Amino acid sequence: MSTDPLQKSRRLLILKLFNEKRYDECESAALRFIQLYPNDPFGWKLAGVASLFLERYQEAEERLLRAIAMNKKDPESLSALGNALRYQSRIKEALSCYERALQIDENHSPALNGKGLSLLDLDKNSPSIEEAVEFFKKAQKITPNQPEIYYNLGTAYGYLGRFDEALAMHRKALDIYPHSHQAYNNLALILQDIGQINEAIDAYDQAIQLKPDWQSYFSNKLFAINYHPDLSPEEIFGAYQAFEQRFGLPHRDTCPPHLNDPRVDRRLRIGYVSADFRSHSTSHFLEPLLAHHDHEQFEIFAYVQNVSFDHLSLRYRKLVDHWVPIAALDDAAVVARIRADQIDILVDLAGHTAGNRLGIFARRPAPVSLTWLGYGYTTGLSAVDYFLTDPVLTPPGCEPLFSERLWRLERPFIAYRPNPAMGDPGPLPAITKGLVTFATLSRGVRVNHRVIRVWSAILKRVPGSQLVLDSKSFQSPAIQEQWAARFTAHGIARERLVMGCHSPPWDLLRDIDISLDCFPHNSGTTLVESLYMGIPVVTLAERPSVGRIGSAILTALGHPEWIAQTEEEYIEKAVELATDLDRLAAIRASLRAELEASPLRDEVGFTQAMERAYRQMWQQWCAGHALRVRDLG
Description:
alpha/beta, Serine Threonine Protein Phosphatase 5, Tetratricopeptide repeat, Rossmann fold, 7-stranded parallel β-sheet, protein O-acetylglucosaminyltransferase activity, protein O-GlcNAc transferase, repeat
């Protein structure tokens, strides 16, 4: 270290600016320092760290690499470089940086924290999460007043279903630093999973207020609002219109004309954008489509937002013509790539779920765009042309609740491919157990006060019956008691509730007689899995489209008699099923075969319907393009 007093004073000034979170000024001062002392790694490190906080990650990477070249034994620079790489979704490279930092100093808290986060990014399975927890705990002991470590530990606990501990960690982070937007967002994620929707929305609002330019927080809030039991469809859509104002309209006039070849009958280039090209519930519906595409008529691109990959990722990669990783690219770079690829139709598979890239769609990189499958409701973006649906999911008259135009297929909006490991449904459990078992395998975000009141009424009407609540939301013993209290308030004894988490749930499904769908937001994959295992599902037709998923599936299956229009009718239908065991046994014996024979299992027919829709969408764009050219001429 130099003994030059002026050099020291400049260092102190830069550190002061950094500690006061004046990152623009810190960066400028660090760059001046580099001009004066180009061989001092301090300037490169602080310039890199400042640009990291300013969210210019590639620039941060370049500067930190210069600092490390000058001082290879600095754990701070290595950890900061790890952060820059992790923010670019280059997780394995980031992990290597953290590990190098820990070889130099095994107690370097930022590296411990970064390694824990990288483990969470790479693998959401329990062994890796438990390992991440240990790294966070070690970092916590070394720097007990660092809020980031607490909310990261809370995130890990959330992945493990230890929601009471997760809540405690997020609240501890806010005790330390009440202005942590990350802690508010992460707290909201846990609150919604345990069914506290209003509290979750309040926490999201706090995060948005602190960081109004982070689209992910607004998307998370919209996700939660979808499940709200008391808001009207119009109120919910109003929140999506606010999203459009903030994140959509600013890009309206930035989209140059599309120069795609406007021939209507040529081979079309279709791009699918998703963070879920991996083992995920959407695979049961996406893989059938990709597996049956006509590659002579359609050239398929997968724009891959994943940061982790598995055996299913390998299968997806073989089903598409082009595999394009985009997680490390910002929106502008992805838009440029899509335009360079001359994509004709771009398909969003995420909506407002985690890892979405709606910022790309707001910039209209392709002549035609649509949203399908991964979310079940509007994106809120007028830049997205179509919401792909069917007549049951979105009945006539609901068009004002969508920013996109509704494109209704002439058949169900999905085809389903079951997991081959599910096994046979087995005999009706009620006959051998002597009691009827109702169940939901949905996340707790769907189980609200209306649902609990209706389910409690059903349990009262069917003496001796029990209700299974099974998902990660019902795993923690402390949270189980909170759920139980909501039922006991309606007169349901704790012993009639069976709570836990089984994954995969096949053996559990063999122990269930009747599945109870949630509302106003229906279940999705678990609903179809129940039917495939011979279990009838009672659903309530509510809001388009998330409130009519059950109706669309049951209509396609040929069992509209299990669709209720009111809560009272829902109760009656569930009780009627529960009091006729002979009928239940007959349903169990025949339901899988019915599903196999239904349009829900017609993978080829579904793919052909999708391809017809793509071709018709393209024809409409070509017709409009011809009119635009004529008007300009």
